[in-house]
Amino acid sequence: MQKTSYPRQDIRVLLLEGISESAVQTFRAAGYTQVEVHPKSLPEDELKARIADVHIVGIRSRTQLTAEVLAEARRLMAVGCFCIGTNQVDLDAAELAGIPAFNAPYSNTRSVAELVLAEAIMLLRGIPQKSAQCHRGGWSKSAEGSHEARGKTIGIVGYGHIGTQVGVLAESLGMQVLFHDIEAKLSLGNARAAADLADLLARSDVVTLHVPETPATRMMIGEQQIAAMKPGVHLINASRGSVVDIDALAAALQSGHVAGAAVDVFPVEPKGNGESLDSPLVGLDNVILTPHVGGSTLEAQDNIGIEVAAKLVRYSDNGSTLSAVNFPEVTLPEHEGSHRLLHIHRNVPGVLSRINEVFSQQGINIDGQFLRTDAKVGYVVIDVSTGDTEAGKLRAALMDVPGTLRTRVLY
Ligand SMILES: NC(=O)c1ccc[n+]([C@@H]2O[C@H](COP(=O)([O-])OP(=O)(O)OC[C@H]3O[C@@H](n4cnc5c(N)ncnc54)[C@H](O)[C@@H]3O)[C@@H](O)[C@H]2O)c1
Ligand SMILES: O=C(O)[C@H](O)COP(=O)(O)O
């Protein structure tokens, strides 16, 4: 293990929201001993106070890393989203602070897809209402409103990693699969692209949402879209709470236009276990409510812990930003020489030549240089063979280059 300029045991890692023990073990095995875990998300004031002292923060979907919170994070060098969604992080603000964010884009895909398929079957059979009646002492044995999944059409909105998996599983039950996506997507199996969202809504017996939270998906299923669905449709939302107008859905469930729904994500979710859900859907027998557990299986959480922690360790140890969601991606080879310097800057003309001037003025040869830019930021990694004093001087001179956001001597 290469010795780093800033000792690994001094790097503070804060993991929130009950991130899996597998993440802690991954950090510890890599020499990061200061790992603090917290079972919940933190209130904003506490988060601001805690984030000021840490170098790496790990979160799940609940913690909001806003620009104001990130402004307090003076030492923070990387963010790990131990989940798929990254909408809870102000990614632009993080990038302009020189902080890459990493996530686990596939690790809980299967868990969500399995839950969605199970919910589709339960809804088509009217099981939520029947179960609720039995719990209250009722008994209503009837086939009324109860259907097989075979031959029914499932409409998948957002045909990405999860949407495609739902489609494959649904086909194995004999369902017809329709999908709608803003990107051109290759169909898996016999799935067919709908002409547009309205076409999908008009033809589906079950509509399931698998889009990310973006300005375009905010309230994309409102009163008008619900009215455009078949009477007796079932709606599943395991994407983000902002995607559905929850009041319009509650009204349609009460009127019976939507026969049943399964909802895993909410516009406002409780901060942690033990707090109650406040939603107009609470108390409706024809709704399966789950506490944002689409990706919460032991298998998924274990894998996510390892995957995201490994990406954070790699960035911290080696500078690699491969698969960062908000940052120029650089994959780096090991460097046999003595020092590796990182320079993160605003992407404005002339910065690279000023960086190279620093090296030529100090008479230091560059062994290797890696540069990637995006619209906002440039990330340069420079390998040199030189003494510790020169590396310190180089870093000081690099910090003076106009446009510099952040520098590090990695080792
Ligand atoms: N409930 C949970 O626990 C849970 C778990 C994992 C992911 N999620 C949510 O599910 C979302 C989808 O996950 P994924 O891994 O499939 O993501 P993905 O990026 O692989 O797929 C999303 C798809 O949606 C499409 N899309 C984007 N905007 C759209 C629009 N306006 N209209 C139609 N299609 C649009 C994209 O082109 C893409 O194909 C995540 O962003 C996350 O918010 C929830
Ligand atoms: O984006 C995700 O992966 C899901 O919404 C799961 O989030 P969670 O880690 O908070 O359960």
From TrEMBL:
Gene3D superfamilies: 3.30.70.260, NAD(P)-binding Rossmann-like Domain. Belongs to the D-isomer specific 2-hydroxyacid dehydrogenase family. It is an enzyme of class 1 (oxidoreductase). This is D-3-phosphoglycerate dehydrogenase. Keywords: NAD, Oxidoreductase. It catalyses: (R)-2-hydroxyglutarate + NAD(+) = 2-oxoglutarate + NADH + H(+); (2R)-3-phosphoglycerate + NAD(+) = 3-phosphooxypyruvate + NADH + H(+). Catalyzes the reversible oxidation of 3-phospho-D-glycerate to 3-phosphonooxypyruvate, the first step of the phosphorylated L-serine biosynthesis pathway. Also catalyzes the reversible oxidation of 2-hydroxyglutarate to 2-oxoglutarate. Its EC number is 1.1.1.399, 1.1.1.95. Residues 340-411 form the ACT domain. It comes from Luteimonas vadosa. It comes from the Bacteria. Pathway: Amino-acid biosynthesis; L-serine biosynthesis; L-serine from 3-phospho-D-glycerate: step 1/3. The keyword Oxidoreductase applies.
